[in-house]
Design brief:
With 283 residues, the chain is mainly beta. Helix content is 4%, strand content 51%. The structure holds fe (iii) ion.
């Protein structure tokens, strides 16, 4: 393990345009041929459009079992409703961290007819011991997510700790970091990350120089940088324009993965059981 050292960029990935749900247009960053997975991260989608035709059909009822979905909204509103009676609206700056566990069936539908819809959905795997846990939600509105403001750098701390402020999300299995970072022109941000954790930076506005010295590489807007191992990461924005990026990290599970669509288990037999349970209304 490469401890005590700065991380740099192992791979730069551009997203793949795709459609999911009832025809929502989105960009898949993790879970596509250029980056099939990044243990414990199974999938990352960015949705971002001003055209209601790209999102209005939403994600009608569909199941999940065996992992967590994390939805972070930048713009727009999404209504969530599941088969256990849980319902709510995700507003700009809000996060929903859903532990699907043994199974939920839910819908995720836009709560607006016009305007911009923008955000991310990340899928994080659960270890074998937690795959059949009871479903649970950690939901926070923007005002309940700590924000660090310092010298041209603004960081929203969804998970992890920055300058002594800890994000509200708890998940001991993968010990996640999830930061939304805004760099004013010409500013930089450095952050300690646990060595051994898988980590990536996704730049969604502007451009960032990632890493230090000769090992640094540039990620342009809409590029995802998979990070090398190490204990810290530095991002520097461009001198002439602001930059916005998410920094996400988590402890790899290193377990066998058997997945099909919305079911992510350890074995084919558990996958077969997931289908059977879903078809028999046991979610
Ligand atoms: Fe879903």
């Amino acid at each position: 393990m490469n401890t005590g050292s700065p991380r740099s960029v192992a791979q730069l990935v551009r997203g793949m345009p795709t459609a999911d749900g009832a025809g929502v247009k989105l960009t898949r960053l993790i879970g596509q041929p250029n980056l099939p997975d990044l243990d414990p991260f199974l999938m990352l989608d960015e949705f971002g459009t001003d055209n209601p035709g790209d999102y209005i059909a939403g994600f009608p009822d569909h199941p999940h079992r065996g992992f967590e979905t994390v939805t972070y909204m930048l713009d727009g509103r999404m209504r969530h409703r599941d088969n256990h009676g849980h319902e709510g609206v995700l507003a700009p700056g809000g996060v929903q961290w859903m532990t699907a566990g043994r199974g939920i069936v839910h819908s995720e539908m836009p709560e607006q007819q016009s305007g911009r819809m923008r955000g991310f959905q990340l899928w994080i795997n659960l270890p074998a011991r937690d795959k059949m846990t009871a479903p649970k939600y950690q939901e926070f509105e923007t005002q309940n997510i700590p924000q660090v403001d310092a010298q041209g750098v603004r960081v929203k701390v969804i998970a992890g700790t920055v300058a002594g402020l800890s994000g509200p999300i708890a998940q001991p299995a993968t010990d996640p970091t999830y930061l939304d970072i805004e760099l004013s022109a010409g500013h930089a941000f450095s952050h300690a990350l646990p060595a051994g954790h898988a980590a990536f930076v996704y730049v969604y506005e502007g451009e960032a120089r990632i890493g230090e010295g000769e090992a640094a590489a540039t990620a342009r807007a809409h590029e995802l940088a998979v990070l090398t191992d190490g204990s810290a990461i530095r991002l520097e924005g461009r001198a002439d324009t602001p930059t916005r990026a998410i920094l996400v990290a988590g402890r790899p599970l290193r377990e066998p993965v058997a997945k099909y669509g919305p079911f992510v288990m350890n074995t084919r037999e558990e996958l077969r059981q997931a289908f059977e349970d879903f078809q028999n209304g046991r979610f």
